[in-house]
Design a protein that fits this description.
The chain has one domain: Rossmann fold (3-Layer(aba) Sandwich), CATH 3.40.50. The protein is 35% helix and 14% strand. It is built from twelve helices and eleven strands. It holds the Pfam family Lipase_3.
Length: 451
């Protein structure tokens, strides 16, 4: 068999992107889970059949997917959760998702060829207000990592000594560890920890945790938790490949992660590609998301795509930046990135759906369309469309091949523009609900400063 066209870093990044597929649909939880499982059957072997889609036997991966990703078997999940809002109404979207695959032989650049498991975690679902409010933006309070119990935790005052993570990150890890593989999925009726405990891997086996966006914060945090909990002792190599992630914790937490997860295992050779390092958060320098939550980085987001020429757009972006800085600063903990590598972004003038993007942004839609392209397209590559030339991605040259879209009954697909408009509505609502509070706090601080 020929080697896959993608190296191990790119394969893992691609699998993180596949976990995000559930975010492109609306439906009830069980329907969304079936849809994700059906989608994964194009890329992986041994995905249990989704009977409602007329699948009769476990999957055999499509040759075009194997040519890029290599041969991987689904071994756990996929599992996802559809949360309920404050009124107890289901969200109608996948708020978090997770799956695990295995390959018998992965050739690591600069390292050996090893049997490997990959734990792929889904990113923020743009349609999930729960993700935005409860996991992404919940950084004003922090949780002490030294006493963190995913099943029972509460924020505490920052003591300036112990490692701390944001309340949002703590919530996300709790949700992931509580996910149960459904009866019709791989390794049914087990949690991730139960699945790992049941393995008896060869001592040389590697396990890799990966995720983009929200999962760029959750994947290193989950890996560290499981490592400290001794759930990963059976594996010879534990790696993380997070991308585009917001910062999960403050300086002591970053130092702890960096000490437990060096960029390369002993004896492995560093590669030349900027995306080619393990245990390192890779981020596009024009992507807003990984600018959260260090205050110095947040101060760049209002004008990251140039100074908005219209008063309303500039005011909204400044309000968003001001609130983000206020939330980041609230606990007294100084959010600090884990070891990381920036990648050079390039401003785009049209979206994946060929909608024109004005730069600098004349409207919030321009800003969000640019953000979307920088947060997704620039990592994956953008195919040529009409007069727009192909854009090489920062990690993948071009997106992974896709199967023809077939929907599980009850599931509807969400377009890119629909996602952008929903994000805009959510952000404007967030600004409107909190802007007065921010201004009051600023006035209070100004009075205290005058005194």
């Amino acid at each position: 068999m020929t080697n896959p066209s993608l190296d191990a870093y790119q394969q893992v990044f691609g699998m993180a992107g596949l976990a995000n597929r559930a975010g492109g649909y609306n439906g009830f939880g069980i329907q969304l889970q079936q849809q994700l499982q059906y989608d994964l059957s194009y890329y992986f072997n041994n995905v249990p059949p989704v009977k409602i889609m007329d699948q009769k036997i476990p999957s055999i991966a499509n040759p075009s997917a194997v040519a890029e990703l290599g041969n991987w078997d689904l071994v756990w999940g996929p599992a996802l959760i559809e949360e309920k809002n404050e009124k107890g109404v289901p969200t109608g979207v996948a708020d978090n998702a997770l799956y695990v695959v295995k390959s018998n032989a992965v050739a690591f650049p600069g390292g050996p060829t090893l049997p490997t498991y990959v734990v792929a975690i889904a990113a923020t679902n743009p349609s999930s207000l729960y993700d935005w409010e409860t996991e992404d933006f919940s950084v004003a309070e922090v949780v002490n990592w030294t006493t963190y119990n995913p099943s029972n935790f509460a924020p505490s005052a920052y003591n300036g000594t112990d490692p701390y993570i944001s309340k949002g990150t703590a919530t996300g890890i709790s949700i992931l560890l509580g996910l149960v593989s459904p009866p019709s999925a791989a390794s049914p009726n087990t949690t991730l920890q139960q699945f790992l405990a049941g393995l008896n891997p060869d001592p040389s086996t590697a396990i890799i945790f990966c995720g983009h966006s929200l999962a760029g914060a959750l994947s290193p945090t989950l890996a560290l938790y499981l490592k400290e909990n001794k759930d990963l002792d059976a594996f010879g190599v534990t790696l993380v490949y997070p991308t585009a992630g917001p910062t999960p914790g403050e300086a002591a937490f970053a130092n702890l992660f960096n000490s437990k997860f060096p960029p390369l295992p002993p004896g492995w050779q560093q590669q030349t590609g900027t995306y080619q390092s393990w245990n390192t958060m890779h981020w596009n320098d024009l992507d807003v998301v990984p600018h959260a939550w260090p205050v110095s980085e947040l101060g760049k987001i209002a004008t990251i795509y140039g100074q908005a020429p219209t008063y309303m757009t500039a005011a909204l972006l400044n309000a968003l930046q001001k609130m983000a800085i206020a939330d980041s600063s609230n606990s007294g903990a100084s959010y600090t990135r884990i070891q990381n590598q920036s990648l050079p972004g390039q401003l785009q003038h049209s979206s994946a759906s060929s909608v024109s993007i004005k730069t600098p942004p004349e409207s919030l839609q321009d800003y969000m369309l640019q953000l979307s392209v920088q947060h997704v397209g620039m990592y994956n590559g953008i195919p040529a469309e009409g007069p727009n030339p192909q854009v090489e991605g920062l990690i993948l040259s071009q997106p992974l091949p896709k199967p023809d879209l077939k929907l599980v009954p009850g599931v509807t697909a969400v377009t890119e523009l629909e996602m952008i408009l929903k994000i805009i509505d959510q952000i404007i609502g967030w600004i409107s609900s909190r802007y007065v509070l921010v201004e009051k706090e600023n006035a209070k601080q100004n009075v205290e400063a005058d005194k």
